[in-house]
Design brief:
The chain is α/β, with parallel strands linked by helices and 418 residues long. It folds into 2 domains: 230 residues, 3-Layer(aba) Sandwich (Rossmann fold), CATH 3.40.50; 164 residues, Rossmann fold (3-Layer(aba) Sandwich). The chain has 14 helices and 15 strands. The strands form 3 sheets. Strands 3-2-1-4-5-6-7 form a 7-stranded parallel sheet, sandwiched between helices. Strand 12, helix 11 and strand 13 form a beta-alpha-beta unit. The chain is globular, with a radius of gyration of 21 Å.
């Protein structure tokens, strides 16, 4: 088989769109696969005069910055770039708000898989969330019940359009079951999220007199930091150990200005650091300098890249006991101290449990580290290449969901991909 020419439609650093970090790591592993000759990254047009980096590898990597968040012409600009590139396969790294938080712009972008199908262009969609699992209120989309029903209906229609692609990859096995049952489809595959980095075994020890608590992400909708700040502040009164809090990341696009307001509102509380956007090369330091990673979520919209990063750097986690995130943890072998997402007292208790019990914290950190080793991104990209090859050889490609367990690092997955 000839070498593959691959287009990836995605945000990419230094662009700050959601899933940009995931795309970075996908490209890092695709570019050195012997099956790949060329990668064309169809990415956002950067507005601040920054430029995309030179990417060195065995495959030629180029950038086509042709789309922008909330731009109505995205679908046509992306389609034109794909046609000009003359690639063999298109991979779309997306979720439901990848192309905009304005409803029309978001919906138009999600019609791209159908347009590619009608044009005879092979495509795979990596769909990081599904409408059936998204809390529209918590995600900052709408609180209105009538509008929620309307958006759910529209989301169902858009999912049908996405499912016209040759393959839809999801990162949680429950999503495979939901999509197959609801849409009666045979082209949905489980391809786990994967671990970005595989550093050397870290030092799991930490200072007995000081602990650094860190949270990482895009905040303001279903990820809020006020309960975490208040929990850490309350925990300080119950321990002699110094607690430092790091809030690493930026606003969710739906809540611009959120973190500035939080920083102003809690200016009276000491030892809180707001890092702002963390460049890719600085991510390891943020994790390695922390002792405990907290997930202050009220709901989830899919798999968690932060969980995999916390695992790869050997960190204990404090995790809300909610649907998708709990399912992911159980499937992939991660552990954490759980708390009810609406319980500030429960969050404080979970933090203190890991602060005071170093043996428990180290045990959790070690288990998360070894769980992360079972699904390296190099293996995940191999799974995609297997699917690409089969799709290109078979115009009627179907995924065989045989419900057979695939054991990876002592963790069972539903065999919905290979």
């Amino acid at each position: 088989m000839k070498k593959l020419k691959l287009a990836i439609v995605t945000p990419y650093p230094p662009g700050k769109g959601t899933l940009n970090e995931y795309a970075f790591h996908l490209v890092e592993h695709f570019k050195n696969k012997p099956q790949v000759e060329e990668i064309c990254i169809i990415c956002e047009d950067l507005e601040d005069n920054s430029v995309y980096p030179n990417v060195e590898g065995k495959a030629k990597v180029s950038f086509k910055p042709v789309w922008a968040f909330n731009k109505l012409s995205n679908i046509f600009n992306i389609y034109r770039a794909i046609k000009i590139s003359k690639v063999d396969m298109v991979l779309l790294n997306i979720h439901f708000l990848s192309f905009g938080d304005k409803k029309v712009a978001a919906a138009l972008g999600l019609l791209l898989p159908m347009l590619l199908k009608l044009s005879g262009i092979k495509s795979v969609v990596l769909l990081h969330n599904i409408i059936e699992s998204v809390d529209l209120d918590a995600a900052g989309i709408t609180k209105n019940r009538i509008l929620q029903n309307i958006f759910s209906f529209i989301g169902t229609m858009l999912t049908r359009m996405i499912l016209t692609s040759d393959l839809v990859a999801v990162t949680i096995s429950k999503y495979v079951e939901i999509l197959n049952a609801k849409y009666k489809t045979n082209n949905v595959a489980l391809i786990p999220h994967g671990t970005f980095d595989l550093p050397e075994t870290p030092d799991f020890e930490s200072s007995k007199n000081e602990k650094t608590i860190m949270t990482f992400g895009k905040f303001g909708t279903y990820k809020t930091v006020e309960p975490l700040i208040e929990a850490v502040d309350a925990a300080r009164a119950k321990t002699d150990i110094k607690l430092k809090l790091i809030i690493a990341g930026t606003d969710n696009p739906n809540r611009l200005g959120y973190l500035d307001k939080v920083q102003s509102d809690y200016a009276h509380i000491e030892d809180i650091e707001f890092t702002g956007y963390v460049e890719e090369e600085d991510v390891p330091k943020v994790f390695l300098d922390s002792d405990i990673v907290v997930f202050p979520y009220t709901s989830t919209t899919g798999s968690s890249g932060v969980l995999h990063q916390a695992g790869s750097y050997g960190k204990a986690c404090v995790i809300p006991n909610i649907g998708d995130l709990k399912a992911l943890i159980e499937e992939e072998g991660y552990v954490g101290e759980y708390f009810k997402p609406d319980s500030a007292e429960g969050l404080e208790k979970a933090i203190l449990q890991l602060v005071h019990d170093d043996a428990l914290r180290i045990n959790n950190a070690q288990q998360n580290f070894y769980a992360s080793r079972g699904l390296p991104m190099s293996d995940i990209t191999d799974w995609y290449l297997i699917h690409f090859s089969r799709i290109l050889m078979n115009t009627d490609y179907e995924v065989k969901n045989e419900k057979e367990p695939v054991k990876i690092n002592r963790v069972e997955f539903i065999s919905a991909s290979i």
